[in-house]
Write a structure and sequence with these properties.
Layout lengths: L2 H18 L4 H34 L8 E6 L8 E3 L4 E2 L2 E2 L5 E5 L17 E5 L4 E6 L5 E5 L4 H7 L1 E7 L2 E7 L6 H7 L3 E6 L12 H4 L15 E3 H13 L14 E3 L12 E5 L12 E5 L25 H7 L7
Parallel strand pairs: 12-13
Antiparallel strand pairs: 1-2, 1-13, 3-4, 5-11, 6-7, 7-8, 9-10, 10-11, 14-15
């Protein structure tokens, strides 16, 4: 029913009551007051709910966009590997943040935030399925299995407690003898750990109480996968260059999945992401897809201030520009 017709009908009914039952002015006043206090708010609530539900159901999905790059970062805060294709697990892209450097004494994680030089540590996967870790401009390197078995880890490493932010987990610690060149590079004694068997349960918007299920992550800061958009970084770079600053690469944000994007920052409104396998609808086959929950925006930090090619950290940018209009909590 049209809202105006509904209100008109109620008004006619009150008029009829007044004429049929010979209501006094005070009685009519009480009747109208009861209508205004009790019925109108309920009517407004119902109409608004229907309007929102109707608009949501009629809201068109954003246009499809292409994935233009995939990155996995085997060692936390070190350079990543650009992939042509990759396996996606619930804990993230294959090998992503499965290793991290820690201080030798407390086994607390080390990142670009404390030492921007970490971006000069390169990672690669050899043809023999080995993780090759090198330092730019140096002959220092270590070579370890990229997919070690439990038996190999038990024979060649030791399980130790470690910390990622406030999370206490465990990790397989490699032989300290392998770390000599890296300790010199860091300027402190360091160790390399691989994620241990203890699950690191998602927190924040990914916590079981909010997500409705329990999910895990490796050594990543918060969530298993970070998605970034080329259209958004283009808009941001326009702001930077207009203010006399240099444009930056999207790599500074260390995303796993880079999409082409349509409108800048359209991803703010995404609730889920559907990854469709290309060509899966050919020859009448059913379209195959994988759906990811978008549970959080990426929190602001100083990591993008570091130039990944030189390890130089800018004192202000892009932090200042981001905070001026992209100040988003990771629990948003």
């Amino acid at each position: 029913m049209d809202p105006l017709e509904f209100v008109s009908g109620i008004t006619d009914r009150i008029t009829t009551w007044y004429s049929e039952y010979d209501l006094t002015v005070s009685q009519l006043f009480l009747t109208v007051t009861a209508f205004l206090v009790g019925v109108v708010p309920l009517l407004i609530y119902t109409l608004e709910r229907n309007r929102r539900n109707g608009s949501n159901s009629a809201l068109a999905l954003p246009p499809a966009t292409e994935i233009v790059a995939l990155y996995t970062y085997p060692i936390k805060s070190c350079r990543g590997i650009k992939l042509k294709a990759g396996k996606l697990f619930k804990t993230g892209l294959e090998l992503d943040r499965q290793w991290m450097f820690v201080d030798a004494e407390k086994h607390e994680f080390l990142t670009i935030r404390q030492n921007s030089k970490m971006t000069l540590i390169n990672t690669a996967i050899s043809a023999d399925d080995e993780l090759v870790v090198t330092i730019k401009g140096s002959d220092v390197q270590i070579i370890i299995p990229a997919h070690p078995t439990d038996e190999w880890l038990k024979a060649n490493t030791k399980l130790v407690p470690c910390k990622v932010w406030s999370d206490s987990v465990d990790g397989w610690e490699y032989d300290p003898a392998l770390m000599k060149g890296f300790s010199e590079f860091f300027g402190q004694e360091v160790r390399l750990l691989r994620k241990g068997p203890s699950p690191r349960i998602l927190r924040g918007n990914g916590a079981p109480s909010r997500l409705g299920r329990e999910e895990h992550v490796g050594f990543a800061d918060l969530m298993p996968v970070l998605v970034a958009s080329e259209s958004s970084i283009a808009e941001f770079n326009m702001r930077l260059t207009e203010d006399g600053e240099e444009a930056i690469t999207i790599e500074r944000f260390r995303p796993n999945i880079i999409v082409q994007g349509t409108l800048p920052w359209e991803e703010d409104n995404w609730k889920t992401i559907r990854l469709i396998y290309p060509g899966s609808d050919k020859d009448g086959d059913a379209i195959k897809w994988l759906t990811l929950d978008v549970v959080a925006h990426c929190g602001r930090c100083q990591v993008p201030n570091v130039n990944p090619e030189t390890a130089e950290k800018h004192k202000r940018e892009p932090w200042n520009h981001l905070m001026s209009y992209r100040r988003v909590s990771h629990d948003s």
